Amino acid sequence: MKQGEFLSSWRRRYFVLKDGHLFWFLGDYVTKDVLPRGVVRIDQCLSIKGAEEAVHKPYAFEISTGETCMFFVAESEREKEEWINSVGRAIIRHSRCVLPEERVNYT
Length: 107
What we know:
By secondary structure, the protein is an alpha+beta fold. It has one domain: Pleckstrin-homology domain (PH domain)/Phosphotyrosine-binding domain (PTB) (PH-domain like). The chain contains two helices and eight strands; from the N terminus they run ββββββαββα.
C-alpha cells in the first residue's frame, strides 16, 4: 500500500522496480500499454528505511528524496525487508559520482 501524496489515505498499489525507476500502478496486470499511476527516479532517492513508528502501521517503510518522503506498507515483514534491500541496492547502483565540473578546490 502507498500513502496518498495529497490525501493521507492508504491505497493498494502494485509496484515495479525497473531500470532505475519505481513505478506504481492501480492494478496487478501490467503491460507496456498500461500507464503508471506514479514513478520515482531511483537516482533521486536518498534513503529507504523502516517507518512503523512514523505511520503507526506494521511493515511500513519510507523512501526519502531531496524533496519528499513517501510512505509504503508491505504485507509482511519479509516483503518489507525485500523492498528495503532491493530499493537500497538500486539507490547505490544508480547514485552518481561527482562530475569533474562539480569538483571543488578544498585547499
